[in-house]
Write a structure and sequence with these properties.
CATH superfamily of the largest domain: Type I PLP-dependent aspartate aminotransferase-like (Major domain)
Order of helices and strands: HHEEEHHEHEHEHEHEEEHHHHEEHEEH
CATH class of the largest domain: Alpha Beta
Structural class: alpha/beta
Mean pLDDT: 91
Number of domains: 2
Strand order of the largest sheet: 4-10-9-8-7-5-6
Strand content: 5-15%
Radius of gyration: 22 Å
CATH topology of the largest domain: Aspartate Aminotransferase, domain 2
Oligomer: single chain
Low-confidence stretches: none
Number of strands: 14
């Protein structure tokens, strides 16, 4: 056992199981949050979604400053797919930091970056042979768009409503986001993008009530309307799409949709740009989510989990045709620093261990077993969607209208917090998400699912009143948001 493992075990013993013994926020958290509110920008002063201050995190458990312990289904949303302070990742990162420091890899080549690039290409989807470094997923998306336009000489990008590609000025100004308020006060509505609805088999435009719907109808809309009335196919450089819609509610397209879309790409010369910033690196049950449908993208975008819990890092992958002779620069001062590369490389090796993806498969099985029955049990549970360690529960006012139920969603999140589970929510949304570490122990994950199910049952006994429409929804009392 390494020297770090006994320390980790001692820390783990301090966080044996979720428990909440105070109101939320507890008194110490309330005091610290008040200090934060006095100096922070307005969006950081909303504490409805996370009403505590973190004190210690070990593996998949978080302890707040008041001693409450929560099962963590949030950190893997960012860049800790193996839980907090994974020893293999941290050891590799620290060793590289001591050996190389914060080098500018764009200018001075170094061994960690070269080794990471080679290993990444070795596991990349079929046809991918080149990489470009990037510091963040947001900048990776912008680089991918530039590459598609450069390699085709065409101006337009086809993308889909409800996706989230980061919050750089260009992206929030021109691209659809998961909620319209993301673009508030920054929307310039830059030209060059065309939008179709993201495929959804549960609810569909111009249809009332729940599916299942054949989601190839979204390709029908593209072929019969957009390409006829808005843009010629020869103007489109590429298709920017998340293989699974993340922020927009864990929507999982069908194989039929992908066959139709990729056929259009081949026919018209569109570059397929897969935004795998959230879906990739094991999150969806395979190394890349596109593997679920045997997709052969021209460009792949990586971030978040690619860092493996180490230092920030992102990447753009592409084919020879797209990247071998490209003049597009996607790096920067903090792109692929040696410590970040060492941590990401250790993360790839951990992902390739059999037990990692086997654990993700078990997470998917348990989630389906524990949560899917809620669709038949609870009137307000419209749908449950699971892909690997991506779990979404969609709440509706009733099964007939399937009108979204954001107030119900918020109440479930609060009830789950009181039980010791912190999941992913956001004001105005109606899909509750659990994104556990790929390595979360299965007993803890199963307990979390049951705790969330009990929270849903509690709220269903007295459902909260919903706003007249999604446009007229109001944030929690005391919030700083616009509506």
């Amino acid at each position: 056992m390494s020297g770090g493992e006994p320390r980790r075990a001692r820390r783990q013993a301090q966080l044996d199981w979720p428990r909440v013994a105070t109101d939320l926020p507890g008194p110490k958290s309330a005091e610290l949050l008040a200090r934060l509110d006095a100096v922070a920008t307005a969006p950081l002063t909303d504490h409805d979604e996370v009403p505590f201050v973190e004190d210690l995190k070990v593996g998949s458990l978080i302890r707040d400053v008041d001693g409450n312990v929560f099962a963590d289904h949030v950190s893997a949303w960012g860049a800790t797919p193996y839980g907090a302070s994974c020893p293999e990742i941290i050891s590799a990162l620290v060793a590289a930091q001591q050996r190389y420091g914060m080098e500018i890899t764009d200018y001075i080549p170094n061994r960690p970056a070269i080794e990471l690039a080679s290993r990444l290409i070795s596991i990349a989807p079929y046809g991918i042979s080149r990489f470009s470094p990037s510091p963040t997923g947001t900048l990776a998306v912008e680089t991918g768009v530039k590459l598609a336009r450069e390699s085709t000489g065409r101006p337009m990008i086809l993308t889909f409503l409800g996706q989230y590609h980061g919050e750089g000025t260009y992206l929030t100004a021109s691209a659809s986001t998961d909620l319209s308020e993301v673009t508030s006060h920054s929307s310039q509505y830059t030209s060059g993008l065309i939008f179709a609805p993201y495929p959804n088999s549960f609810r569909a435009p111009f249809h009332h009530g729940p599916g299942p719907y054949d989601d190839t109808m979204y390709v029908d809309f593209l072929e019969e309307w957009l390409l006829v009335h808005q843009v010629e196919p020869e103007q489109i450089a590429g298709v920017l799409i998340e293989p699974i819609l993340a922020e927009g509610g864990i929507l999982i397209p069908s194989g039929g949709f992908w066959r139709r879309l990729t056929s259009l790409c081949g026919r018209w010369g569109w570059k397929l740009i897969l935004d795998e910033v959230q879906t990739g690196m094991g999150r969806s049950g395979t190394i890349f989510a596109g593997e679920r449908w045997d997709l052969h993208p021209d460009i792949v975008l990586l971030g978040k989990g690619f860092a493996a819990g180490g230092a920030p890092i992102a990447a753009v992958l592409g084919t020879e045709d797209v990247m071998a002779a490209s003049d597009v620069h996607g790096g920067g001062t903090f792109a692929w620093t040696p410590p970040a590369c060492a941590g990401a490389l250790a993360g790839i090796e951990k992902l390739l261990e059999h037990r990692t993806l086997a654990n993700v498969a078990e997470i998917e099985r348990v989630a389906n077993a524990e949560l899917l029955p809620l669709v038949d049990e609870i009137p307000e549970v419209g749908d449950v969607r699971v892909a690997g360690a991506f779990i979404g529960i969609e709440f509706v006012v009733d099964k007939q209208s399937i009108r979204p139920a954001p107030a119900f969603h918020r109440a479930v999140h609060q009830a789950a917090l009181r039980r010791g589970v912190v999941g992913i929510t956001q004001w105005g949304k109606w899909v509750y998400r659990l994104q556990p570490a790929l390595t979360m122990p299965i007993p803890l994950f199963a307990w979390s699912c049951r705790a969330v199910a009990d929270a849903i049952r509690e709220v269903a006994r007295k459902p909260p009143q919903e706003a007249p429409s999604l446009i007229e929804r109001r944030p929690p009392a005391g919030g700083t948001r616009r509506r």
